[in-house]
Amino acid sequence: MNEQATLLASALAPASLDDPLYYLKNLQAVVTWVMTHHHDLLDAEELTTLQQLLQLSIPAQALLARMIIRKGELFRSDKLKYDEIPSSANALDELSKYGFINSNPLIAIEQIHKHCRRDELLNLLIAAGSALPKSAKKSELLLALETLDLATSASPLHAWWPEAPFSLVSLQCMALFDRLRLMFFGNLHQDWSEFVLTELGHQAYEIVAFDPQFRAFGDRDDVNSYLALHHCQTALQEASDITAILPLLPERLSNPWLEYRRQRLGFQMAQHAERAGDIPLAIELYTGNVLNEAKVRLYRVLEKHSDDSLAVIHAIEQDLQSPLRLETQVHLQRILLRLSRKMGKPQPRPKRQKLPVVELSLNNNDRRVEFAALDALTAEDQQEGFYTENWLFTGLLGLLLWPVLFEPLPGAFFHPFQAGPADLYRPDFVARRKAQIDERLATLDSGEYRDLIKHCWQQKYGIACSLVHWPVITEALLDLALAIIPAAHLKAIFTHLLSDLRNHRRGMPDLCVFDGRLQSYKLVEVKGPGDRLQDHQTLWIESMLAAGIPIEVAQVQWISPP
């Protein structure tokens, strides 16, 4: 750990929850972090605003923090009262003086209806000369508001209701705080409330160096590109006509992780066009997209709408010669078979490996089927089993690759409270770290991996890691796995995981059963009555069987009570 990383981490030490202003101190820490770490990505006006914020009185800062944490940008003054803030009125005056809020914003009719209670709307309408029965529903009052002279334009609250017993204030700095939130989190789906109120520091995290050369955002244009993608996605969720949104989509971006986000957004746009029935546009957007999911959707659309099935068949056959995810290959082969039958030239189905299945007839004692099967499979002496599902091998991989996971690379770490790199499940995760990953995997050949994994478990236990679920990776399970599972099997599983970590971390067998007498193990996928293997589970099992890894499917049937 370098000195700068230590200093920055200590600067972000969380406030105690016993402090009534802990949320403010956490937000102040984030603001200071961004100003320190991303100083050059903020313009002069933004820096001045943030410096001014930190110079406000504590009550004014606290009230602003409360408003930022809450949803929306418009607030009733009588709903801004907090025990730790002695005078909300004085704090609002200070915030208004320095431009953080507008104490007399223009209010549209929908906002009046949203922020006023039913009885208040009745009083407003009576003051405006409207006569309505007191039994009128709030939804009916909106129609009455629309008849007022002011309804055609936004006006201050006092123009709507001169006798209003409260005021409405609006935040004027949310765009800046959205930018800060993005630079800190690296995304805009995390909001201030979940982090400032609950997450900051209530978990141990690995300390990562935050040198400028490793920043995710290289310059202000990167931040602006992300915000443009976010605005485009927001518009997509709200719009019915995709053609109006397409011009908002940025051109190809030079930043790799931002370009990946752009491709995913382009895929969503293609899906939107397909659902809307604009098939030519959907085909155009799918064709220009590099994601495997786009290729599958493209051929499904062409299967239904193309007049030249033979050309589609040739295109699929050509794509099947290129590197594709296993699931993508399965989907394309199914489309190919359907089109071939349609053309009167049926092709033989690809041969699938026969999976080993064991039938279990068990009593249903209101237990999960996995645990009932586990008991049955470990009934003999010196057999010990664990419900591991997708956690055992991802956990072992995480422990082996720990230094690689937490190596600072551009686009990987945004703040000191990450459980892993932001690019962990992106397609280029392995390529960016190939030499380091190969070096760690080579320890499986030399035998060093056992000491490396056990030492990491001892040193890092409890520290958040995206690949390690600590409650499952107990010392007992770890010791058995390292002693009994052959290194060649671990290498095959790790290699398979790393070939497509986003998808291959799903579908692993439910149970791991060890036989102490034979010093052997097996993996077991459990299926209850009426349940069947999904594609990703079948593919995982087939891949591991090909590597000589012992796997079976336990098909459970419940024994009817006498």
From TrEMBL:
The prosthetic group or cofactor this protein requires is: Mg(2+); Mn(2+)
The residues covered by the VRR-NUC domain are 444-558
Cited InterPro entries:
Fan1-like, FAN1-like_WH, tRNA_endonuc-like_dom_sf, VRR_NUC
Q: Pfam families per the record?
A: FAN1_HTH, VRR_NUC
Which molecular function terms from Gene Ontology are attached?
metal ion binding; nucleic acid binding; phosphodiesterase I activity
Q: Which UniProt keywords apply?
A: Hydrolase, Magnesium, Manganese, Metal-binding, Nuclease
Enzyme class per UniProt:
hydrolase
Its UniProt entry gives the catalysed reaction(s) as:
Hydrolytically removes 5'-nucleotides successively from the 3'-hydroxy termini of 3'-hydroxy-terminated oligonucleotides
Q: Could you state one GO biological process linked to this protein?
A: interstrand cross-link repair
Task: Give the Enzyme Commission number.
Answer: 3.1.4.1
Against PANTHER family, the record matches this protein to: FANCONI-ASSOCIATED NUCLEASE 1
The text of the family note is: Belongs to the FAN1 family.
**Full protein name:** phosphodiesterase I
Which species does the entry assign this protein to? Zhongshania aliphaticivorans
